[in-house]
Specification:
With 332 residues, the protein is α/β, with parallel strands linked by helices. It contains eleven helices and twelve strands. The strands form two sheets. Strands 2-1-3-4-5-11 form a six-stranded parallel sheet, with helices on both faces. A six-stranded mixed sheet has the order 7-6-8-9-10-12, sandwiched between helices. About 2% of the residues have low confidence. The structure holds beta-D-glucopyranose (BGC).
Length: 332
């Protein structure tokens, strides 16, 4: 009995001791929190930087991938990332968002180049105020932007042309092209593509239309092209949602013979390749663009000026590179 009383007493004392210890730790933490703002010299961390990333379109999966890469890097470096963009592609809205980022005194800005003089002026104004700006995906070379991070778009267009040439049958073929927008990256891809296919006299570029980076518009434009130009046998989409839209249009127009070439590796593009509906895609590295842009900013804050151009790699995705699930299977 006395043993039992002793045990209970000990247990009681241990609980009381643990409670007091917890109270003590809690108060110590509270005191530290109160004292830190009064003691700037005592802060061990460098000041947290706020980066604003302005996309071409907020929920576009390509831009969400850029955001994801930028977010990973900024949290690894203890920086804050504000991701923003127009709900639907809208150059003027991009300009307003840039003005807002400058007015809010962001520490740095990452944005897509849109080739607009007013936008360029705001980039220059930001830089003059000490806010470094990095262009991703599309360059803004005539501005004071610190660097460009993204695909070499002229080269990517040329590679796309070579993909089409390689898959050509030797017979004359007419090609329909969709660009995503008027942005410089699309125009450069188109230029590279034209240059590459100009070496194959049997290939002719019949028409170029814009999808306004919308899958719905891509499907509409492609269906319209296939109806008006029934001789088209190849269709190429130069931005992320175009290949998927073209695939939809070819199915609606009952044209399974049309060879489709896409850009990027959105889930449905990969599925289209797996199912032999899309011949190949030229894949960019949007997450890498976001990561690299943030790490260049970190270096810049550490006193290093980056080189003006950082090209991210592209790769070809087709059934031979897809691997799992397609081995041995041959399309058409
Ligand atoms: C382009 C981006 C564009 C996106 C749209 C990508 O291929 O590089 O500029 O915003 O497609 O879906």
């Amino acid at each position: 009995m006395s043993n039992r009383t002793g045990f209970i007493g000990l247990l009681f004392l241990s609980i009381a001791f643990a409670f007091l210890l917890a109270q003590f730790i809690l108060s110590a933490l509270q005191i530290r929190q109160l004292v830190q703002p009064l003691n700037p010299g005592g802060a061990e961390q460098p000041p947290s930087r706020r980066i604003v990333l302005i996309s071409q379109e907020l929920d576009n999966p390509f831009w969400r991938a850029v955001e994801q890469g930028a977010r990973e890097a900024s949290s690894a470096y203890g920086m804050e990332l504000d991701y923003t963009g127009p709900f639907r592609i809208h150059a003027e809205e991009q300009i307003k968002l840039l003005q807002k980022a400058v007015a809010s005194k962001a520490d740095a800005i990452i944005l897509q180049g849109i080739g607009d003089p007013a936008y360029r002026q705001w980039i220059d104004r930001a830089v003059d105020q000490g806010i470094p700006v990095i262009a991703v995906d599309t360059d803004e070379p005539d501005s004071k932007r610190l660097a460009y991070v993204g695909t070499d778009n002229l080269e990517a267009g040329r590679r796309m042309g070579e993909l089409v040439i390689r898959s050509a049958t030797g017979k004359p073929a007419q090609i329909g092209v969709l660009v995503g927008s008027d942005a410089e990256n699309q125009q450069q891809r188109l230029e590279g593509f034209r240059a590459a296919i100009s070496r194959s006299p049997e290939l002719q570029l019949a028409e170029v239309k814009s999808s306004h980076i919308s899958r719905l518009q891509a499907a509409r434009q492609a269906e319209d092209m296939l109806t008006r130009l029934p001789q088209l046998s190849v269709m190429v989409g130069l931005s992320a949602l175009d290949g998927i839209g073209i695939r939809e249009a070819a199915a609606r127009a009952k044209r399974p013979d049309v060879r489709i070439f896409a850009f990027d590796d959105l889930e449905e593009t990969v599925e289209g390749i797996r199912q032999c509906a899309i011949a190949a895609s030229l894949v960019q590295q949007p997450a890498e663009m976001g990561r690299t842009a943030v790490s260049l900013l970190r270096d810049y804050f550490g006193g290093q000026r980056p080189a003006p151009q950082h090209f991210t790699v592209t790769s070809v995705l087709d059934r031979s590179t897809l691997g799992a699930g397609t081995a041995g299977a041959v399309c058409r």
